Amino acid sequence: MSDIFRAYDIRGKYPGEINKKAACLIGQAFVDFLKEKTKAKRPLIVVGRDKRASSTPLFKSLARGLKSQKAKVISIGEVPTDAFYFAFKYFKAGGGIMITASHNPSKWNGFKMIVKSHGFVCQGQGMEKLKSKIRKAPTGSRQRRQQKSETHIKDAKIESKNIIPSYLNHILKMAKKLEIQGVPKLFKIGVEFLGGVAFKVIKPLVKKFSLKTVCLNSSTHSFDPLLPKNLRELSKVIRNKKLDFGIAFDGDGDRIIFLDEKGKLVDPSSILALLSLYFMEEWPHSKIVYNLVCSKVVREEIKSHGGVPIRTRVGHVFIKKIAEKKKAAFGGEHSGHYFFKENGYSECSALVLLLMLKILSDKKKRLSELIEPLKRYFKGGEINLPLHQDAEKIYKKITSHFKGGKIDYLDGLTIEFKDWWFNLRESQTEPLFKLTIEAKNKRAFLEKKKAIFSILFSL
């Protein structure tokens, strides 16, 4: 079970690594951890889940584990992760667990955990302790505890609540704070849900604003909206039906990806830069948080418009912590996560959509026209590399080849030169290294990629 404990959450393949037995044990250990942190004898825990086939059986076993330790459980059913964050605060819960593996393929699943006045259970913030609690329990004790939960707790009541109406009201209140009063133009939008749960919020929202939508729910057994194969149908629909733009979501709905009116994918870094401009126009000198693998254009746009760019390592847990500490107005990642101060620095894909509609209405331009000035560099997508060597050994080898650049180890290895940069880091959600390269044009990008590959694959 040791491999399932990752930097941001617990995640693994079902049922080999994540299964019903593991879910029950995790539930029991989480309550123990929660009692220590909150001093509550019967802590209230909110549980949500995505639409994966394994999420419901995992929920049942997790709930039994929670109840066996005398926790009170509220189930909010199948919801986007951002709605789960809202529910955690709305019900004033001591703890919360979202069952999801986000963008990972359908065979994966996992648990995102949060504790009141503590924050996310993650690396360096409780994950090690939770892992220890599970591993220290003797096998016999584990079995007896699970059997107890399966029998004594079998018929225990779990309160079910529909959080969506309250969450929609919350989104509209946030929109008002951001000066989004309505959407004058009747937009036509293509929407790809990829078999995920984003539709629970997006469908009633577009109805509220009288938006014309063409909704898709492609079943590709993959929930990553940045994979080209997952965007083919949406791109085709945008072109054939002459839509204004398209959006796609990941499995748990906390990432939103844009395609322009030509059906072309828009780099999330460009979207982050565009949305950041709105904040700096409305609230001058805003602090904007971005992760270190976003395009250089993000930093440049924030600076040139009088804002304060704040660079962080990759991962929603880390970016939220920095945004809160620095009191940033807004933040985002290269993956399509966007964070709002008004939402307690949690994601809200629906609010991103409303903000984009506001910008398009105000500027009276197509999305491709707004993005064009931001396409100053060529940045490929993250390249997954199944490297098996020690990270330190790899970084040392690379730094010995690329001299003269600015080196930092904020997250993996980053080396920045005047006209190009790259980052190589270990993935925190998959057993991979991730390589990001940005250069002044495609030709330079391919040259640098070839040079880096020649080093990596000679190790």
Describe the structure using short key phrases.
single chain; Alpha-D-Glucose-1,6-Bisphosphate, Chain A, domain 3; 39% helix; TATA-Binding Protein; seven-stranded mixed beta sheet; six-stranded antiparallel beta sheet; alpha/beta
- Gap between N and C termini: 30 Å
Which stretches are low in confidence, meaning pLDDT under 50 for 5 or more residues running?
Answer: none
**Strand-residue proportion:** 15-25%
Q: In CATH's first tier, which class of the largest domain applies?
A: Alpha Beta
Question: What is the strand tally?
Answer: 22
Estimated radius of gyration: 22 Å
* Average of the residue pLDDT scores: 94
Topology of this protein?
Blueprint: E1 10-13, H1 20-38, E2 44-49, H2 55-68, E3 72-78, H3 81-90, E4 95-99, E5 108-115, E6 119-120, H4 127-136, H5 139-151, E7 159-160, H6 164-177, E8 188-192, H7 199-208, E9 212-216, H8 232-240, E10 245-249, E11 256-259, H9 268-282, E12 287-291, H10 296-304, E13 308-312, H11 316-326, E14 330-332, E15 338-340, E16 346-347, H12 349-363, H13 367-371, E17 378-379, E18 383-385, H14 391-401, E19 406-408, E20 413-416, E21 420-426, E22 433-439, H15 442-456
Parallel strand pairs: 2-3, 2-4, 3-7, 8-9, 8-10, 12-13, 12-14
Antiparallel strand pairs: 1-5, 4-5, 5-6, 10-11, 14-15, 15-16, 17-22, 18-22, 19-20, 20-21, 21-22
Helix pairs in contact: 1-2, 1-4, 2-5, 6-12, 9-10
